[in-house]
Amino acid sequence: MPPRLPITRRHFIRSLSVAGGAAGILAYGHWIEPEWLEVRRERIPFFKSPPPRPLRILLLADFHYSATVPLSLIKRSIELGLAEKPDLVLLAGDFVTERLYDPVPYMAVLKGLTGRIPCLACLGNHDGDVHAETRKRPAVLEPVRHFLKQSGVPVLENQTQPWTHEGRPFEIIGLGDLWSNLCEPEKAFPKEDAGLPRLVLSHNPDSKSLLRNFRWNVMTCGHSHGGQFCLPLLGSPFAPLEDKRYAFGLHEWEGRQIYTTKGVGNLHGIRINCRPEVTILDLV
Q1: Using CA atoms, how far apart are residues 228 and 167, in angstroms rounded to an integer?
Q2: In the chain, % of residues over pLDDT 90
Q3: Domain span at residue 125?
């Protein structure tokens, strides 16, 4: 067995520096970045002929109201989004983290949104039983469905909602959650295709694999939180996706566009190099 080398002062100081740096990163990731909202903007071709002005969409996802995500953060994200004067709000699921608690103040926050602007939502895997897929049984979503109805938020679950902007008709197609075994595009898409532009609202970008044989133009989604940790050269290795290329931002997929927001809330109260996001999409 080789002799144990003595610990020098230099080695000791270096070890302390490494430990202190790691502690500092964790403190930053817990106390600062999860509350540090950013507004991201994208311009996406959508209409066959340009409307007099773009359709401005406020996309918010993954509120995850819980012990680690306060209502104050959710309220600030809504206020930042409304300051951009959107025409329509899309909420892409995961309103809670498996359990709905304190619904009355949460309802008041959402009514501050729905009372001012049209709003549509889909549900996420945490809005029911997050383990529904592995347990091979349906997710229990009724408490969150009822809460959103009381808050004035219409929920699209495998449904199509016709919409018009500046005289340009289009279709909004809301999907059920993929992990909850509720994503059923054959029910969601109209039986007859009128040829209108189609905007898909889905919680999970991996649901694209079920949409390959359906016609659509743009998908908006969340779910990934951007991975919560974004690492140099590695990207978002912890994103809960099969296809991690779509962990956040705007990407092309088979001639269509997918935008994944990094979301507002988080799990376990930490984000590192992956700030929470308020998304503004101008469809042109």
Answers
A1: 40
A2: 78
A3: 37-283
